[in-house]
Write a structure and sequence with these properties.
By secondary structure, the chain is an alpha/beta fold. The chain contains 23 helices and 16 strands. The protein is about 40% helix and about 15% strand. Bound molecules: flavin mononucleotide (FMN) and iron/sulfur cluster (SF4). Iron/sulfur cluster binds next to helix 19 and helix 21.
């Protein structure tokens, strides 16, 4: 019987040498005359173990990792094809604590299936949600999504069903579904992982959104830095078109739905929804004033659903198992699961999908295993470059939209960056202002000018020039940016800056500053 060996084709695994490992395995298979095939699966999301090679045995999957080219021959000598023991043996990957503790709903297939095989997708529960949606009235699909409690995973946490209802209820001869795959936040990779590891789940989610709102055309705007995701999505759309999942008739219905893949323009602000729409229309990525909402006048002035990859990719499971099933996970108004991306100076970096409600401390210390450097954790930035820095004193905060907001923080796209005690928080505050200055679209003054003045002020603070005055000025600037900016780039930059100042005042005290300036 032919043996299947899985070597991830995911960008993270490729960066760690997965292509070279796959080639070495191929060579070994042919040199030994084995009846084996290689499947380039997605990553399971345990990046410290990548490239993680798996073999399908009669007793289930057996994993090895991290595998390098020099290990390949000895792995075959040890009987890799039959799951033999080796110093890199990890056993059943599902039993590894990092995976065993997860609740994988959105990422259920990621790392398991062949990402570009629709047959494999269906064999693992794919397309059930779309089939259910096809048999329902659009308003009932929207109702299911609303009742599931699913909120946008792109950052703002807006209820997905309510957005869809606005588009359904807005008349328009043409409506659009736009998938925001610009994924610009630091420490985030969930969108990329799903597009590379299970692209059909996003396609299915977009097709359901199309049926639910009357939109017949979809766009996926993928950041240009993601060539592998662009390639996987392009191929998957082609396969779905040939199979009748997409095209003039979705699964034999009278409604059509097509998807086009677009490469992003390479600016952080192009992830902001209205700027993204401008970019998709071929214009400069400048933020549009709201109203009108994109749901009413979006792409080319037409009613448009714009959702993050994970929001859309979570819809198939809702339509498969029902709103109540999804809603039963989570806490408060944060329902379902959230793929937390753990990065920075951390031992076990990777993707951890779990119901809302774990505390930040559990995520960092127990799941992430503390810092990679072995030094104490000093701060954790949650929610990308616009997210607040959390000190250990706030590690009891549960991962929940409202709980984070109550501590002047945000969940954003659920990326967390861990820093050890060598981090200089004044430097991090300056970085936040500098990032905003570089990435500002320039449309409004608080952000365009405020961020540049913010950098200058923090530089003066660092140079120990009237430090108390500079601190007061930064606080004032942040207030103006927070309440006077048109979008969240200028409006949220104060979060990392002020959290650094408030939670780590010792790094901003004249004595510390004077020392750093010496
Ligand atoms: C500066 C800026 C950058 C953003 N970048 C992204 C991004 O890369 N991906 C994303 O999904 N949302 C991003 N957003 C949020 C989007 O504007 C929007 O809220 C989101 O696409 C809506 O989808 P959701 O409701 O599914 O979250 C960004 C917002 C701002 C202000
Ligand atoms: S806050 Fe910044 S990025 Fe947003 S509209 Fe204003 S200038 Fe543009």
């Amino acid at each position: 019987m032919s043996v299947t060996i899985y070597v991830p084709g995911d960008s993270g695994a490729l960066a760690l040498g997965a292509d070279k490992v796959a080639k070495a395995i191929e060579k070994e298979i042919s040199a030994r005359g084995l009846d084996a095939r290689i499947v380039r699966n997605g990553s399971r999301g345990m990046y410290w173990l990548e490239p993680m090679v798996e073999v399908a045995t009669a007793a289930g999957r057996v994993a090895y990792g991290p595998v390098s080219v020099k290990d390949v021959a000895s792995l075959f000598d040890a009987g890799l094809a039959a799951g033999g023991q080796h110093k890199l043996s990890l056993g059943d990957p599902e039993k590894l604590p990092f995976l065993a503790k997860q609740t994988r709903l959105t990422f259920a297939r990621c790392g398991i299936t062949d990402p570009l095989s629709l047959a494999d997708y269906e064999a693992h529960g794919g397309l059930v949600g779309l089939r259910n949606a096809v048999a329902m009235a659009p308003a009932d699909v929207v109702k299911q999504v609303t009742e599931s409690g699913l909120r946008g995973r792109g950052g703002a946490g807006f209820p997905t069903g309510i957005k869809w209802k606005t588009v359904l209820d807005t008349p328009g001869e043409q409506k659009y579904i736009v998938c925001n795959a610009d994924e610009g936040d630091s420490a985030t990779f969930a969108d990329r992982m799903i597009m590379e590891g299970d692209p059909f789940v996003l396609i299915e989610g977009m097709a359901i959104a199309g049926l639910a709102t009357g939109a017949t055309k979809g766009y996926v705007y993928i950041r240009s830095e993601y060539p592998h995701a662009i390639a996987a999505m392009t191929k998957a759309v082609e396969v779905a078109g040939k199979a009748g999942v997409l095209g003039k008739s979705v699964l034999g219905t009278s409604q059509g739905f097509d998807i086009e893949i677009r490469s992003g323009a390479g600016a952080y602000v192009c992830g902001e929804e209205t700027s993204l729409l401008n970019s998709l229309e071929g214009k400069r990525g400048v933020v549009r004033a709201k109203p009108p909402l994109p749901a009413i006048e979006g792409l080319f002035g037409k009613p448009t659903v714009i959702n993050n990859v994970i929001s859309l990719a979570s819809v198939p499971i809702v339509m498969d198992k029902g709103a109540q099933y999804y809603k039963d996970f989570g806490m408060g108004r944060s329902r379902g699961t959230i793929p937390i991306q753990i990065a920075g100076n951390v031992k076990h970096g990777g993707l951890f999908e779990v119901a809302f409600g774990l505390t930040l401390g559990e995520i960092v210390d127990e799941i992430g295993g503390g810092t990679r450097s072995g030094r104490p954790v000093k701060a954790v930035q949650v929610g990308g470059p616009l997210g607040a820095y959390f000190p250990r004193a706030l590690f009891d905060t549960p991962f929940d939209y409202e709980a984070f907001a109550a501590k002047d923080g945000l969940i954003g796209h659920a990326g967390i960056t861990v820093f050890d005690d060598s981090a200089d928080m004044l430097k991090m505050a300056r970085f936040a202002m500098e990032f905003c200055a570089i990435e500002s679209c320039g449309k409004c003054t608080p952000c365009r000018i405020g961020s540049t003045r913010g950098v200058e002020t923090l530089d003066k603070l660092k140079a120990n020039i009237e430090p108390e005055k500079q601190l007061a000025l930064v606080s004032d600037l942040c207030n103006t940016m927070k309440f006077g900016s048109l979008c969240a780039l200028g409006g949220f930059t104060p979060y990392p800056v002020m959290s650094a100042i408030n939670h780590f005042p010792e790094d901003f005290r004249p004595a510390a500053v004077a020392q750093a300036a010496e």
